[in-house]
Amino acid sequence: MFQDNPLLNQLKQTMKANTPKRTGIVKASDRGFGFLETDKGKRFFIAPSEMKKVLHGDRISATIQENGDKSSAEPVELKQTEITDFVAQISISPKRVSIKANNPLIQGFFKIKGAMQLANKGYHDGDWVNVKLLTHALEGNGFLVEVTEKIAEHNDPFAYRLIAVANHKLPNKAPEFDHPWQVTDPELERKDLTKVPFFTIDGVNTQDMDDALFVEENPQGWTLTVAISDPSAYVPEMTDLDKEAYKRSFTLYLPNFNVPMLPRDLSDSLCSLKEGEKRATICCSIQIASNGEIIGEPEFFAAWIKSHYRLNYHDVSNFLENEELNEQQWKPNKELSQLLHTLDNATEVRHQWRCKNTIVMKNQPDYTLKLNNKGEVYEILCEPRRTANRLVEESMIVANVCAGDFLAKHKKQGVFNVHSGIASDRLEKAVKLLADYNIKTDSASLATLSGYVAMRQQVALLNNAYLDHRLRRLLSYADTSAAPAPHFTMGVKHYATWTSPIRKYGDLINHRLIKSVLTNQQATPVAADIGVHLNEARKAQRMAERDVNNLLYCNYLKDQEDADWRYKAEIFDIVKAGCRVRVQENGATFFIPNSLLSKPTSDNKKVECCREEGVVKVAGNVELQLGDVIDVMLSSVKPESRQLIAKLADPLA
């Protein structure tokens, strides 16, 4: 009766026009409701029924409804949506086809274009698919989507890897190009060093070996020659292959799975420094003095080399760390034994020089997740950095320092790793914090490389984990730059990586620049925004790595939920809602909410997590702080949100 009443409709339109509106961003929750966060910082509740009209991240205009002292938002107009496609799991039955987004924050009801034909196209119930958004609910009659491709089969035990890769719009397989793979720079003179006994040290299963080493002792100290595989000899600039490598920027590494930047017949074969195979390389010979300092000018040159020994970290570490080895353990021949002992001496002296003159960050163990054929973790290995790791790390660091200085001097451009130390707006905070530990400095000094290094040298003597964490929070972000600039947190004037050109596009660029100096030719200018591109590509990869690892940890630890097992964990972040800790035995990250820091009584309201100070207080007294190692117990596992919730094993009083 009233449905088509023109007077009633006109009244509704008038009331709607007079209702106040706000513009902002939709923030969804995994429980159906959401919030509108306005540009002025206000927050309005969005009911579950209204959330069906919008997606997380949408910029919308909404009317604000007042109900006593509570306000709520009702979406009316879409300004912009961030979601154009997403990953979902498809449900197919004879009567109905539906999808459920992998992201728990995407919860709308989606109509699927051509839904009933999907089964005939090879889709099965439970398959993971990519979905394209055709029509937004605020611009049509509900959400309309289209299934565009299959990501993983319903019965694939490793589907989670493909899902994570698709979520972050990363490639899931190696690039494929038909190519004769001939050297493209015949004008570059290469020394024949195939008789020099270079050797590689990598993981047991590594296929893309890109660095080999040779060292000799001399009256001044040592001559270290670092040979790096030269894929730029086979990848011409601006070709389709080069553009694909630029797009990928890095090789993606996930547990038991990698997606290379270059075709596998390059990365794992022709460019890999395999034992006994002749390979094109760029080399750098570095003179290291008996006190560990670099002396003279490092020499860069092109060469053909042949790796004489393919070694792994485990065997080399066992050999160098143990005076006596049993018959079952690996032992090098006389030539290799001398090479390894010589390199051990040179890199130890070099490491000590860096400790005294630059900044050496504390080594963290590596955690390796071992998977079975069902895609499940059956073991997590905690692998501390051992002697062989130090040999390779020190060799690569000194080579990258030399490359940074070389490119800064000869080209004044390149792909540089840069860091400006303490953020400019936090210098005064740093000065006050350091004064509490009797370290005297000032803002002007901290803003210089020498002043920052001097400060870090003093801090290192204190061996104070809390102070280290507090200072880390005051740092600016590390960056990648086309122009040379210092790297404060390493304590060096220039740092340009060139030692992993098979895996990193920035290193490939630096190879081309080094070769342009060797041939006295003009090089293609490095794009000013190269850092932005590389940083975004690396961020996407790290998010995919995080998603996979968090899910694997959740599945691995789910049987420990509410168990009495105690874990030793270090507090590495404190926010208003609680603490984040890293378990020392397996590398898992737990979150301890405020409510689980103390016993479940009214006293837990006295617990306060102070992000600015990096401490947890109870009734105003500091009880925990950043860097503390505490006992925690797993409280709950949430695989959908990939969260591990913990509690203090000994609650705060």
UniProtKB/TrEMBL annotation:
From which organism does this entry originate?
Answer: Psychromonas aquatilis
Q: Spell out the coiled coil positions from the record.
A: none
Gene3D superfamilies, per database record = 2.40.50.640, Nucleic acid-binding proteins
Q: What is its EC number?
A: 3.1.13.1
Instruction: Spell out the subcellular localization from the entry.
Output: Cytoplasm
Q: What keywords are assigned to this protein?
A: Cytoplasm, Exonuclease, Hydrolase, Nuclease, RNA-binding
**Pfam families, per the entry:** OB_RNB (PF08206), RNB (PF00773)
Q: What is this protein called?
A: Exoribonuclease II
Instruction: Please state which protein family the record places this protein in.
Output: Belongs to the RNR ribonuclease family. RNase II subfamily.
Top enzyme class, one word, equals: hydrolase
